[in-house]
Amino acid sequence: MPLSDRLVRPTDQASILEYLSGHRMFGVLQQPDLESLLPEIVERIYPKYHRLYHKGEPTTHVYIVRSGLVVSAEEREEGNGCTWQIYASGDVLCSGAAILDRPHVVTATALADSTILLIPRGPFDRLWRGCPEMVPRIIQEMYTTLRRTEQAVVSVAAKGAIARIAEFLLSSDPERDQATGGEGMPIRWTLTHEDIAFLLGLSRETVSRAFSRLSRMKIIATGRRRIVILNPSSLAELARS
User: Fold this and answer.
1) Model confidence band, residue 10 (pLDDT cutoffs 50, 70, 90)
2) Domains in the chain and their CATH numbers?
């Protein structure tokens, strides 16, 4: 779907300026530099399962996940894929590809309704070239992305289904409700078992069986769009197994 067909939210420049001022990559910039960038930024809402970009397309923008969940994956002809990275609120996609002017090597898909800030490659290039203090932040973001990808590869290669699901639940902080209410660690959930299977390289049946087992073990409790981690220490032990 072309960018013009996706829902464009009217730009609230004051809100975006405040957001970028507190962002781990862009917060190092001076106020005039951020203000000069604002007219170039577009805020788009990508519904669940809509593509941000496809493998092989030129990198035209840097993407900042303001809210939601985005997954980058290697698509295959048979319809499934191999997930390389999960991006949540605050994460930045494509900064390295934009700097090097390289095409996308994977496809990025919204796995929940997601609000994304798009910065064109040209203004982003001028920004980091004119503000050297931003370069270490870009390198740190790229390192974090690479490190998480390495961990995902190791997890797929070395861990069983239960361990991978336990690890995923423990890492789902962006979806976690801050008010635990003394009932464990609630996670607001927008993902289906099929979504989780896609993310972790498992079958939907395997994911369903794993959730049932974790519920029987009283490690988690499930409800409507909500999972409660009842026993974080046991879940962490399973994640290490």
Assistant:
1) low
2) 3-156 (2.60.120.10), 159-240 (1.10.10.10)
